[in-house]
């Protein structure tokens, strides 16, 4: 008892135990269980997302770089092609001009120069038709020369074809022109900067070929062709361009020779203002990014040799337009990344919430469990205490019985001195009542044990012959003295496996009841035991007054007696039949009452007869 | 017979002694286990009536002590108990050397009748 008490104390006063409960309920109120599982989940989610996003970034960066390189390469090829085309064109025209300039009659000196008139802006139409004829033939060759002319060494026009344009010239002398000055200073073919043609219709560049006298190397004149840049521009305009991309050809004086954006009617010559010289890398196409009017542009350019000068062919495209595809890819990737992050964080959020809920629930469960454990333990303790209490109580109740009964025995036998009849009667009364008390205490103990399932049964093989002969020896003669006939009838040789003492208790109880109610002098109690299949069927019959049907119902319940007046008259606790029923239940048998309420009562018992093999358990 | 009556309840030992003496037997009374063991060392008895439920040093403790000293076979021990012990408990005691375990309260004549079988014939 003392050991158990100590254990109980430890359980309820253990601070660590209580602390656990308090801690749990506090944590319940706050938002997140920052415990390992959630932290782990977050780490995994974040690192996975970071990994995916990182990989995506790396891949996309490579892609974008590749795309950008492709775009650059395309631009380079474009500009390369463009510059080649233009250079070739120039070379072709220049080559042809030079060829013609070396053929007779162009090589002949301008012998009709005295016929130059200011009015006609040169020699008359029908003069020096040899030369004029040659030149006119050149127009068929699709050189895009707007006009071709021959000047005197001093710059005066000798003749110009077509003649209609010659008379429309604004002046006779063109010694101020770039082509003149260039040709004169270099003494060889010179390609001029771009300028507006004399008829103010087009932008032209002049290819001037000085023609020298074969004999004395004096200058005969300058053979010039004006290349219509409109045609060049037209052909350039047909090249596939990107969004907002335009091509420029810039001459040695930073004049814009060709602008793919320009309409043919626009003949204003603009200057190219950017300085690309620092980025120029010789004969290759260069690509740089430069700001024009505040916007970044991708400029691919190449220098080409035009005569003694260097011109620049370039493609210009706003940076955004140039790299629109890679920018799109970057934006797409960004979109994907953001989507991934949103998805992971949203699912992460729900996942964590779920985990959190689960954790909270499991914690609450744990808490409930521990509370339950505590309560269960408490109940067990109470049960044990109740048990021990009732055991103690019954033990204590029984203790005085022995001195009482022994003293009565002593007294009634005259061992403490002689007693008179009255005194003996008193002693007997004390003895009888004490025995009733003993009986009641035993019944209460039995009921308690049966209720708590604590009654222990010693099962053993019992011979019915022996059992019944014991009954006979107990009751036969004693009852005969009272005028009650006690008869037993049984099949011999039956063995049952049961608790001898408890079965006897049932019989004693039933027989005891019968004894109480049979008529004096003519009472009959008859017990019959027969074997039916694998059951032993016993009937205990008396010829008492019986029990009326309406009173039979609750007979096997505790404290039930037919009549309270009966109880007072006959004694008994009313527990007997209840105990008997419980015992029979536990022994695997049955008990049943049969009575017509007039001629007597029969109690029917059944018990299992077990076969040999089970017997030896 | 020479009887040793051991029970912590003085009322019981008093009435038992009275009865047995009146029936012509010799009785020695002990009200605790240690006392009983001391007495056993000095005298010889036909039977020791031993109450099981005693505080501090129980009847079972007495039996165990005697068994450990190897003296158990020298004695006829009959145990009395007011509670109903399990059969395992009873068997254990019997294995240790207890001759019988009887339930209290017991009829005095029946008890005496039972104890007569242990009378040592001289």
Structure description:
The complex is a heterodimer of chains A (617) and B (122). Chain A has 617 residues and is α+β, with helices and mostly antiparallel strands. Helices cover 50% and strands 20% of the residues of chain A. In chain A, the strands form four sheets. Chain A has a five-stranded antiparallel beta sheet with strand order 2-1-5-4-3, with helices on both faces. The longest helix of chain A has 75 residues, at 324-398. The model of chain A is unreliable at 1-30 and 612-617 (pLDDT under 50). In chain B, α2 (33-42) crosses α3. The model of chain B has no long low-confidence stretch (mean pLDDT 88). In chain B, strands 2-1-3-4-5 form a five-stranded parallel beta sheet, sandwiched between helices. Helices cover 42% and strands 20% of the residues of chain B. Chain B has 122 residues and is α/β, with parallel strands linked by helices. The longest helix of chain B has 13 residues, at 10-22.
Keywords:
heterodimer, A: 617 residues, alpha+beta, 5-stranded antiparallel sheet, 16 helices, 17 strands, B: 122 residues, alpha/beta, 5-stranded parallel sheet, 5 helices, 5 strands, 20% strand, globular
Summarize the structure.
The complex is a heterodimer of chains A (617) and B (122). With 617 residues, chain A is an alpha+beta fold. Chain A has helices spanning 2-13, 15-29, 36-101, 129-138, 163-167, 178-186, 229-237, 319-322, 324-398, 401-412, 421-451, 464-482, 500-517, 564-570, 576-586, 612-615; strands at residues 145-151, 157-161, 190-196, 203-212, 219-228, 246-250, 256-259, 286-292, 295-306, 309-318, 459-463, 484-490, 495-499, 523-532, 535-542, 590-595, 601-608.
